[in-house]
Automatic annotation (TrEMBL):
The lineage of its organism: Bacteria, Bacillati, Actinomycetota, Actinomycetes, Micrococcales. Gene3D superfamilies: Ribonuclease H-like superfamily/Ribonuclease H, Winged helix-like DNA-binding domain superfamily/Winged helix DNA-binding domain. Coiled coil: none annotated. SUPFAM superfamilies: Homeodomain-like, Ribonuclease H-like. It comes from the Bacteria. This is IS3 family transposase. Involved in the transposition of the insertion sequence. Residues 227-393 form the Integrase catalytic domain. Signal peptide: none annotated. NCBIfam families: transpos_IS3 (NF033516).
Length: 406
């Protein structure tokens, strides 16, 4: 057994008192530390330090008293612990910001990741979790729920990434169900929150069409009733803008109201009539190529000069379509087109930007429109893509088999 390294308090007090008395007498002052140290079995330098501390405490020597030194040491210790706790909270902010207590699995994984940096007990103290819980979780086999959550989380990340990162809980849940994966919506919400995934938010931007002078104009045939019983009954059109490093780029869209399908689009660096006209030409070409009859189609827009230009109205007349124009300065009269612009801004422009120039943006718009029409789930359509919704409408209704009689 090794000898104790710390002197007893009583021995320290007695040796200090004897050294002070010896140093007070000129006859015994010389060699007092060495002599008393040898008599009591104490190192002379340790005795010298004790005497110096006692003299400082009694005000006989300048310096920091023992009480002050202990208080400073305690404050420094508390400061170190606070800095460490602050660091731990910053590192854990990813799963603590939700407000509700995180799952034990998440907190134990955090402890495992940062144990070498902070130690197990300090992290558990900050997260208010027992160290025994962490050690038990570390040796316990994953539960069936944990294994299923891990698989679902991977599928959720895949769905979210493949759809421009814009899907929220509702559409991720619908996409998983379409793939034949039975999962509760609350489970999707919990796992998306744990993975830090969320849907895109939309914000309204300014209008980009300039009102035409008050002249004879088409009537408002829609009156905010954006519904259609079949494709090619009602189209809505509008123009929006995108900032690029090379300057402003404008995008025109034509939307079929029945299935919310984009039938035509165009981008340009100018707001001339050709921008809107090219989008209309694309929509007419795409529909007539599939054998559709556009006679009686209602084309609705705002009062922008692009849509009331002679060439634009003539092209509508050639297709036997009827023009409809909303009231002045009222975006609600073209709300569905405005909503599409908002989606375009949120899901592509802000989500995938910044943009270099019109060429950079044009390629991205083509990819986004293809995804929007063929793969994006629309809540208003029962969480199916527009192309699939139109195909289901076009499919002939299955006739029941005739009843056989003997």
């Amino acid at each position: 057994m090794s000898a104790p390294r710390k002197y007893p308090a009583e021995l320290k007090e007695r040796a200090t008192r004897m050294a002070l008395e010896a140093r007070a007498d000129p006859a015994t002052r010389v060699g007092a530390y060495k002599r008393i140290g040898e008599q009591l079995g104490i190192h002379p330098e340790a005795l010298r330090t004790w005497v110096r501390e006692t003299e400082v405490d009694e005000g006989l020597r300048p310096g920091t008293t023992s009480t002050d030194a202990a208080r400073i040491a305690e404050l420094e210790r508390e400061n170190r612990e606070l800095r460490r706790a602050n660091t731990i909270l910053k590192q854990a902010s990813g799963f603590l910001r939700g407000g509700a207590r995180p799952p034990v699995e998440v907190m134990c994984a955090f402890v495992e990741e940062h144990r070498d940096e902070h130690g197990v007990e300090p992290i558990c103290r900050v997260l208010q979790i027992a160290p025994s819980t962490y050690y038990a979780h570390r040796t316990r086999q994953p539960s069936a729920r944990a294994l299923r959550d891990a698989g679902l989380a991977e599928k959720i990340r895949t769905v979210h990434e493949e759809n421009y990162g814009v899907y929220g809980v509702r559409k991720v849940h619908a996409a998983l169900n379409r793939e034949g994966i039975p999962v509760a919506r609350c489970t999707v919400e919990r796992l998306m929150r744990a993975e830090g995934l969320r849907g895109i938010s939309r914000a309204k931007g300014p209008r980009t069409t300039r009102p035409a002078p008050e002249t004879a104009r088409p009537a408002d045939l829609v009156e905010r009733r954006f519904t259609a019983e079949a494709p090619n009954r009602l189209w809505v059109a509008d123009i929006t803008y995108v900032r690029t490093f090379a300057g402003w780029v404008y995008a025109a869209f034509v939307l079929d109201v029945f299935a919310r399908r984009i039938v035509g689009w165009q981008v340009s660096t100018s707001l001339y009539t050709e921008l809107a006209l090219d989008a209309l030409q694309m929509g007419i070409w795409a529909r007539t190529r599939d054998g559709a009859d556009l006679a009686g189609l209602v084309h609705h827009s705002d009062r922008g000069v692009q849509y009331r230009a002679i060439r634009y109205t003539e092209r509508l007349a050639e297709a036997d379509a009827v023009a409809s124009v909303g009231s002045r300065g009222d975006s609600y009269d073209n709300a569905m087109a405005e909503a599409l612009n908002s989606l375009f801004k949120a899901e592509l422009v802000r989500n995938r930007g910044p943009w270099r120039d019109i060429n950079h943006l044009e390629i991205a718009v083509a990819e986004w429109v293809d995804w929007y029409n063929h793969r994006r789930l629309h809540g208003e359509l029962g969480h199916v893509p527009p192309a699939e919704y139109e195909a289901a409408h076009a499919a002939p209704a299955q006739q029941p088999e005739p009843t056989k009689t003997n």
